[in-house]
Amino acid sequence: MSAQTQAIILAAGKSTRFSTTKTKLSYTICGQEMIRFPLNLLQSLGIKTTVVVGYQQEVIRAIISQHGYSAQCIEQTIQKGTGHALLCTKKQWSAKTLLILNGDAPLITQEQVTQLINHHRSTNATVSFIASYNADPSVIGYGRVITEGDTISIVEQRDFTGDPAKECRLNAGVYLIERDFLEQTLPELETHPSGEIFITDLIKKASETNKHIEVVDIPFDSVRGINTLRELWVAERLIRSKLINKWMDNGVRFTSPESVEIDKDITIGADSIIGFGVQLKNGTTIGKGVTINSFSALNNASIADNVTIHSHSTISNSTVKDKALIGPYARIHRNSTLHTESVIGNFVEVSKSSVGPQSKAKHLTYLGQTTIGTKVNIGAGTITCNYNGVSKHNTIIKDNAFIGSNSALLAPVTIGKGALVAAGSTINQDVPDNALAIARQKQVTKEQYASKLKNKIQPAQTLKQAHST
Ligand code: UD1
Ligand code: CA
Fold first, then answer.
1. What separation in Å is there between the alpha carbon of 55 and the centre of ligand 1?
2. Half-sphere exposure of 433 (CA within 13 A, CB side)
3. Nearest CA owner, ligand 1 atom 35
4. What is the pLDDT of residues 227-236, one digit of tens each?
5. Are strands 337-338 and 360-368 parallel, antiparallel or unpaired?
């Protein structure tokens, strides 16, 4: 397939209708920039690809190189329409047939493009393109395929004066054209009053010169072009719902699928339950039997089997092993690891840290740059003070240690195996194995002093009377 066909992606346009300052092709849909959709498709088909870039070309070029696509970029210096964009690539043409795709049509599938290629070949066509019937008059922004007697042409929205319910075959912007026809015809296309050359005018030219034209019709949801943020939303919902359906078919329960944000590169094991408003992003992998409750956000997280994540927890760039319990309101980030059956409870932050098997930090704690062994108990309100304002340091808490509530551990510091830190301690020296460390003010208790003190204070009754007068 690849030697006979080469592909051109048109990606130089100005994104005017997006009304943003960024090219629309850099907006993500389920975690992937829009321009990556045609790039992925052509990469899977093994077709050599040229991308026409212009408006914010540095952004497009960066996406191409960051993700290692082998596509070559050609510059269209002034945006003079889709026909002109294609003409800019003329020197690159070498294959027998050119496959041209708009850069803003992420819903088209590899199967549909393959169908177009096969159809073009089997019918020996000169020009083939994809279209879709949609009689909804509110659908705007598409060229309409008009057949009059023997002639076929594409009339753009701005020039269309007919009945949209009748002339309702819409051009998808995916074309397969024989190179010799293109070389001859493309330079001859007229410039429209707007100063643009339309690739779509090639169809009329082919028709006028009695070339064989084929049209492959596919469902409208696959041809949708993205010109506006509204259309981006529709496309993302369609792609998202396909993804969610796929995971449902693999045994994943979504309690409120319409509220879930999910990227393309996520994997989820069977018997997992994904709650309301959950975000699953950026290569996150989820094992079997995992429960993720409402409003939790996972970004590049690796979650093993049977983990429970309570609501409002965020996990990014971190690993969670089997049967760990997290949240609600936990934050796990910066390359942290929670080992098997560990418990990270409410309002606990874990940063650049490892929490050993069956260790627990259940309430109101900060663990930063900390390595925690097995079966360690971190009391409520424990803080590892890893930053002294100048430099950052590590804390080590060994197996079976117990850190009493409201302790501050001043790094660098090591708490030995089985050691006990008394509640309210500020620890700035290492604690040996099995030792008890207490670092707090001694308690002073004055017998019978409470009632004496109460007598000294003005009785409440007197105060009340004073207020009411
Ligand atoms: C185009 C088609 C229309 C079709 C629709 C499908 C033309 C004239 N019209 O319209 O028939 O129904 O797609 O979605 O082709 N681009 C360039 N350089 C330019 C202009 C555009 O590279 O000078 C690129 C854009 O970045 C975009 C693609 O070409 O990726 C299509 O351009 P766009 O302006 O979105 O065309 P539509 O108006 O949608
Ligand atoms: Ca478009």
1. 13
2. 3
3. 227
4. 999 999 999 9
5. unpaired
Q: What is d(CA 55, CA 76) in angstroms, rounded to the nearest whole number? A: 8
Look at the alpha carbons of 12, 18, 19, 24 in this order and tell me if their dihedral is positive or negative. Answer: negative
Could you give phi then psi for residue 203, rounded to 5 degrees? -65, -45
Protein residues whose CB sits closer than 6 Å to any atom of ligand 1: 10-13, 52, 76, 79-82, 84-85, 102-105, 141-143, 154, 156, 170-173, 198-200, 225, 227
Measured by CA distance, the residue closest to atom 13 of ligand 1 is: 173
353-376 pLDDT, tens digit each = 999 999 999 999 999 999 999 999
* Residues contacting 289, CB < 8 A, separation 6+: 269, 270, 271, 272, 305, 306
How many CA atoms, within 13 angstroms, populate the side-chain half-sphere of residue 139?
Answer: 24
Cis amide prior to 412 (ω within 30 degrees):
yes
Specify whether the CB–CB gap between 311 and 327 falls below 8 A.
Answer: yes
23 CA closest ligand 1 atom index: 26
Amino acid at 116: L
Residues 150/107, Cβ–Cβ less than 8 Å: no
Rounded-to-integer distance, Cα 107 and Cα 173, Å: 12
Name the one residue in this structure whose structure tokens are 């409120």. Answer: 256
Could you list the active site residues? 363
The residue whose CA has the least distance to atom 1 of ligand 1 is 173
